[in-house]
Amino acid sequence: MERFVLLVISCLCVSRVTADSLSPPVNVTIKAVKASSAVVTWDIPDGDPVIGFAITQQKKDVRMLRFIQEVNTTTRSCALWDLEEETDYIVHVQSISMSGTSPLSEPLRFRTPKEAETQASKNEVMMEEVGQSTQLRAGELIIIVVVLIMWAGVIALFCRQYDIIKDNEPNNNKDKAKNSSECSTPEHPTGGLLRSKIPKNNNNNRMPSVNIIEV
């Protein structure tokens, strides 16, 4: 991999071999623009035998440009550095093949912001991240509180049912004892109510037999 950075004082064209069959890069865009840096990205048309790229960076209305060339790579982006804040730049991208370079892409113009604006944007991003994390923590706390309340309700319901069952046990024992006492008598503890008394038979004095029924 070879990287060449050239600062050219004049606006004279640099002689290159142009490949007629090679198309220029498309969808050239600029991203992550800061006060002193930026990133340029692009796409390559399908079927082009591209082995590298070349970028021309120039200040607007200034006869000075920077030429960046890289080969043996499939990269589709390049970082621009040492930029000046509040400055307009023009960028061109070319594809490189074994037979030469493609025509220049459409010019891409962008302007670098102030350093203070960059810091302000960073602070805004940090505040947004802090706000999102705070919302997530608040949501987690709400879920935990709801789960604890549900568990407390289940435990309270279980204790209440247990107390009701425990209070009903002596009453059930009393009812059983009362029912058993009503079904028995002193003479017939097993619940019988019929008693028969028959006197002994006397051969001399026969008396009529009397059956006594007690209730």
Describe this structure as you would to a colleague.
This protein has 215 residues and is of the alpha+beta class. Helix content is 32%, strand content 25%. The chain is built from one helix and nine strands. A hairpin with a 5-residue loop joins strand 4 and strand 5 (65-71). The longest helix has 68 residues, at 115-182. The chain is elongated, with a radius of gyration of 52 Å. It starts with a strand and ends in a 33-residue tail after the last helix.
- The oligomeric status of these chains comes to single chain
Low-confidence stretches are 1-16, 191-198
**Biggest sheet statistics:** 6 strands, antiparallel
Structural class: alpha+beta
Question: Characteristics of this structure?
Answer:
three-stranded antiparallel β-sheet, 215 residues, disordered N terminus, six-stranded antiparallel β-sheet, 25% strand, single chain, alpha+beta
Could you provide a short overview of the structure?
With 215 residues, the chain is of the alpha+beta class. The chain has one helix at 115-182, and strands at residues 3-8, 26-31, 38-43, 52-59, 65-71, 77-80, 88-97, 100-101, 108-111.
Which SSEs are present, and which pair or pack?
Blueprint: E1 3-8, E2 26-31, E3 38-43, E4 52-59, E5 65-71, E6 77-80, E7 88-97, E8 100-101, E9 108-111, H1 115-182
